[in-house]
Amino acid sequence: MVLKVFFPSCCAFAESGILIGRWISEQNSAVILAVVHFPFIPAQVKQYLSEVQRVSKVTVSVLGSWSNSKQEKEESLSEFLKDLGTIFSHEPWIQISKEGDSKFWSCSTLQKDANSPKEEEIIFIYYDQCKVMLSHLHPPLDTAVSSDHKADDASKLSAIFDTVAKSKVLFMTDRYDEGPIKLTHWQSDGVEASIIVELLKQASVPACMLLAFLLSLVSGVCRSRALNFWPLSFLWSKLSTCEQLGHRLQHLQVISSTKKAENYTQLMRKANILVSLLVDVALGLLLMSWLYRKNRIGHLADTLVPVADRVAEELQSLLQWLMGAPAGLKMNRALDQVLGRFFLYHIHLWIS
């Protein structure tokens, strides 16, 4: 018979330990609920599981071992995990291992009976514990004969959902507790953190929709006919600020779009635009914080003002030279005086 192992995705990066969950013998399935980390005392683990079983009415036990080795091979750890099968009596003893950041996992069973047949086929099912925990699965109420098979399949799947949904007591223990048992599950970082993450996920969709609506409204105003008349059209096409504003609006529309990327190229384009925006904002904030810290703007102004005064003096002397007879050339004196006084006036305004 095929063995089905339901493993939560939140435990993929957990440290090595033992797997606790429910064994459903009718379906030959193992529902992993959490990982207990080292060090621990087996008697305390058994006492904790008995309390969870008494409150949740779910038969929770130690189903096997989980090995997440950072090195290539840790023979001592693997042998120790195998020996745990003699302390926690469960048949079969499930062994799941993962080597560092590798994408390849190993899942096997250890049979205590020497006369048992060869290893059975294992189906490893990766599930989102948070979504299963928050969902409610009800079997169909149709009692027709044609739907008996579907109802049976739904009841089998409902047992998996009910196991996770009824294990709320197990998920109340996080890593901040001072108890002797440390667990990894979907609320390991704390109940408050899980609530904040879920609220952010729920708020991200309407926020993106609102941002997309505002951007489409702004882009619609920018493409309106009122901006196509002169001189607005001329200014819009010549000013670099307007050009950059148009490009940024297009980038924000691409990022806030609710449409899924059709191919890998569009996905990479969205990612590149998002990274470029984040880098621009980060560099801008760093520059502003650096300038406003220790009155660096005042020091920079004190350094540049004498340079600006020196440039203005040089321009004034150059204009006075051009208003006379530069290099012995006889110019139109009336025109020279008008143009010279015009630019000298603007330099005077700049200095003052």
Task: Explain what you see.
- With about 350 residues, the protein is an alpha/beta fold.
- It has 3 domains: about 5-190, Cytidine Deaminase, domain 2; about 195-295, no CATH class; about 295-350.
- Helix content is about 50%, strand content about 15%.
- It is built from 10 helices and 8 strands.
- Strands 1, 2, 3, 4, 5, 6, 7 and 8 form an 8-stranded mixed sheet that branches.
- The longest helix is centred in the middle third of the chain and has 32 residues, at about 190-220.
- Residues about 140-145 have low confidence and may be disordered.
- Keywords: Membrane, Transferase, Transmembrane, Transmembrane helix.
- It comes from Centropus bengalensis (lesser coucal).
- It holds the Pfam family Gpi1.
- GO terms for molecular function: transferase activity.
List the defining traits of the structure above:
352 residues, alpha/beta, Cytidine Deaminase, domain 2, eight-stranded mixed β-sheet, 15% strand, elongated, transferase, transmembrane helix
